[in-house]
């Protein structure tokens, strides 16, 4: 039986042996391996920008209008393979893809070139007293309307410029805030990576250690093979044996208890019947004698000569004819006795059917003990099997120590520590340069703010200081100052706008392309598909990642699959397909032990022929119990006599009639004699008939006698059929034990072994699942990628830069209409040197 345990070993490795496959494989008992120790990762690789996110979405929509084309995968692949330009249409495709950026950038360059030139020409023109430079204003009737319109337009343009510069400032500040907070995010990623590296050895040790749980469970069941296997055999045989015994017990329980109750009631009733019949027989015999005596005396009286008289003859004849009614009706003398039935019932009550059935149960319940006694050879093999299991555990431990996991993790930890130190050293440098960037962007915003200050001051002074009654040459100082502020704003607009547009164009081209070529394809994983292009990063390798890791570029390992698996926090073994480096199926394979197990498992022999469910004496007692003997009683004769009246006629009625007819006779001795006979009949009724009728009522009051007899009669017929069925079922169950037990034992033994083997299969599956999903869960790797690309590059930098140029660019563009409206409006605020009267002609300047 040492072999049986070896079988459990063989199946532990997942191997299958067709020769010893069980007929039915029950699900094994569930083992609790606990949870693989794992710490929670701190990094949440998700960035919520807050309120400024609305601006980010607006910028994304604007970029979609500028560049609605899909990601140019083919062009990027050719560019990476240095094949761009080999095909004639490559440049055309690139221009088509970038046409939105090209046109927008061209307009920006045009702005950069023309605005300073226009400003220079405008300045020279005004110096020549043209273009509004002449301090002379021709007054017109709609001057107030024009002034109001110019002021309104300039104010609206200034508001739009203000919104734009606020957006630019918010984006600038947001970028600085995120850069300052990036250190915490980076430290969190390094912490998760360290947890990832430090926890992996402990997780592997935990997996190896749980082999003892499986081994201990298997040895525990092998040490108890007798009771456990015996219970299985008993359970399987019990599918046939228990119904037979249950049927007998049910009969012995419910049906028999009812029958015994009825028999006891019937016994009591029969005893009462026996006594009552004796009383009735004695009473009816005495009544019959008295009635015969009365009839004789009446006949003598009616034979008197007085009855021959004409007046009495008719009455006497009537009385004489009624004398036949003076006789008993119920005759109990002919009823059969019930003493034999009482004796049979007493014998039936002495049979204990329940004990007969319980003996069968006891014999069948001894099955585990029989199996225990006959499986001691298995117990003798347990030490050998234990040694085999211990050797397997040692092999597992040796194999895990032979893996280069510790060395790999140690090298990675060194590299990680160096990288962390490098990043920490350069964080102050990054923050310093970010300060310079923030300061430069702030200066650009201040340029726009300076222009806005002049415009707002000009509108404030001009509007507040304007006197509509004053002529152009007599305008107040405040109004004149407002006009000068407006012209100062125009001057600074020409000085700063082209500088602002240079920054806008550069950041627009850079930030817009990063958003379209990096951030968007990273979000929908198109970028990974490009990276997974065969022979892209290395012209000799089909799959770059597997070439780097395994030196085998033919293994299908893609960036997208690794990233997706790590994103789902799967184990590094599954994500990187490390089965190509070391295969855990081979590590868990112990098929070397299976052949011996397959041969020795067939030698189990258990004999259950000693189990006797119901012996011959028990069967005879069952048959005896089924016959109570009550069915031999002549129930009809009893019921017929019981239902009869005591006499054929009611003696009181007869006596009354006799006395009434005596009154019809002439007064004399005949009348008195008949009345005397009537009194004698009444006396007989009161002294003999009434007690007999009460005795009859006593019998009728025992109506349960009738019910008990009928119940016993019906139960007796049912018992006969049921006893025969029970005996047949018990015989079939006994035949199953005697003839088929060996097959059941073999089958149950295989099932038992499969259950034990199932523990090892559970262990193997649990190890595989844990390694695939829990051990070295690579979520930190995906978090690092998400942090670097999605959060830091795209959310922190690109979105902020794009929002900055969007706000600064909109402000720069609206400087043009602001210049026009400011120049026009300043003419109405500044103090003129000369003036004209009203002139409806159009002013030329």
UniProtKB/TrEMBL annotation:
Q: Which residues form the signal peptide?
A: 1-18
The UniProt keywords, alphabetically, are: Glycoprotein, Membrane, Signal, Transmembrane, Transmembrane helix
Originating organism: Bubo bubo
Asked if the record carries the keyword Transmembrane helix, the reply is: yes
Protein name (record): Prominin 1
Query: Cytoplasm as a keyword?
Result: no
UniProt-listed InterPro entries: Prominin
Q: Which Pfam families match?
A: Prominin (PF05478)
- Spell out the PANTHER family in the cross-references: PROMININ PROM PROTEIN, PROMININ-1
Query: Which GO biological-process labels does this protein carry?
Result: camera-type eye photoreceptor cell differentiation; photoreceptor cell maintenance
Q: How does it sit in the membrane?
A: Multi-pass membrane protein
Give TM regions: 99-128, 149-171, 435-464, 485-510, 804-823
The root-end lineage is: Eukaryota, Metazoa, Chordata, Craniata, Vertebrata
GO MF terms here are: cholesterol binding
The record's similarity note reads: Belongs to the prominin family.
Where is it localised?
A: Cell projection, Microvillus membrane
The entry's cellular-component GO terms read:
apical plasma membrane; cell surface; cilium; microvillus membrane; prominosome
Q: What is its main location?
A: membrane
